[in-house]
Amino acid sequence: MLAPFFVCSLANALTPREIQAQFNIGTSLMEEMPEEAVQVFRNLYEQSSTIRIQLELARSLYLAGRLEEAKDEFINILNRPIPITVRDKVEWYLSEIQKRQTAKVYLGLYQDSNPGYITSARTVSIFGQTLSYQPAQNTNSETGLAVGVEAERELVPQSGYFLQANINTATYQTNAFNKQDLDFSFIKRWQGYDYKDLRVGHETMFYGGTVLYNYDYLATRWVFNLPNQDYYGFLVKGGPIDYPTYSYLSGSQTQAQIFYNHNITRDLTLYLETGGDKTPASQNAYSSYGFYGTIGTQIADDYTNIQANLKASQLRRNYWDSDPFWGQVRQDRGQLYFLSITKRDFYIMGLRPSIDITYQSNNSSIPFFTYNKIFGGIFFKNVY
After folding, report:
1. Which one of 182, 220, 243, 266 is most buried, by most CB atoms within 10 A?
2. What is the pTM of this model?
3. How many whole angstroms from its chain centre is CA 131?
4. pLDDT tens readout for residues 222-248
5. Angstrom distance (rounded) from CA 354 to CA 149
6. Can you tell me the distance from the alpha carbon of 238 to that of 316, in angstroms, rounded to the nearest whole number?
């Protein structure tokens, strides 16, 4: 009943104030009546073909389940001069469409200086006794292959209920360093101008060919979009975690994080994130709580379409009781620095390549757990 009213009201040219009023009506319809929102934004786009209106038209089409039409609009937006934050949102929606229609793929080939997170120390002190330490595994750099596949299907069209499968692997020359992560979840989403979800899932991590842990979790994620294209939100996740081989680590884990992304200029952003976790284990010596802070930025050049993403994180982890083997309470401080360079308008079969480099270090009160590593290579992100 609402659509004819909007068609009639937009029959004549609208003033900027009237366009904003209709825009606000369209965003209010997105969650409950996306088809009506499509009509509002389509007619608005005929009046004013701005990127802002086209973005909301594409999002309304996506929410209405008209994925092919939404995909066409999103790809068209990518080919226009858009700010970094808008590009990030568009690529997120395109990847969501990809995993609902077929599957989202992630590939990477990289060099890892320390795949086993092995300390560089070759002597250790145990209860005052200094002993020699010879690692059982290879301590040389190794080449790694990363493969990720993510797919989901909506159980009933337009219901917001999804089943999702997420598989990530890291394969090295030494099998003992290989990792596989399998994550299966049931999700309820509420999407409109903002995003909210509730997820129930099960995650299994394999390390060196055996199960490292099983994690049954409940999680929720909320993202709020602001008119200036900034966004902020939070994530909470928790549940019991079981280590079949290392039963003393079994217990539970609760994580939380908050984040904010600010659009300084069309080609410069500021990202802030902080979070923490509480991980009680069956033995207090292995129970811990940790927290971290991250600051990042994205810088782009419109002429070359080259974009650099940088992030720096500081991490801290404190354990609850004295380690029974080392005879002291463990406390860790860590750093992580990340650099990614990509060409924003270059895609290979919907995959966009980037050169990623990460440096990670950990300084522990127990030197055996002190390490550093650097890994970098070329990665292909599935955009559409």
Report:
1. 243
2. 0.86
3. 42
4. 999 998 889 999 999 999 999 999 999
5. 18
6. 19
Give tens-digit pLDDT for 28-53. Answer: 888 889 999 999 999 898 888 888 89
Q: How many CB atoms lie within 10 A of CB 64?
A: 18
CB-based contacts of 189, cutoff 8 Å, min separation 6: 160, 162, 195, 196, 197
Share of the chain above pLDDT 90, in %: 72
18 CB-near residues (< 8 Å, 6+ apart): none
Angle, alpha carbons 302-306-309 (nearest 5°) = 115
Query: What domains can you pick out in the chain, each with its CATH number?
Result: 2-80 (1.25.40), 98-382 (2.40.160.40)
Contact between residue 110 and residue 144 where contact means Cβ atoms under 8 Å apart: yes
In whole angstroms, what is the distance from residue 302 CA to residue 307 CA? 9
Do residues 333 and 346 touch, judged by C-beta distance below 8 A? no
DSSP assignment letter at 281: B
- The whole-number pLDDT of residue 31 equals 83
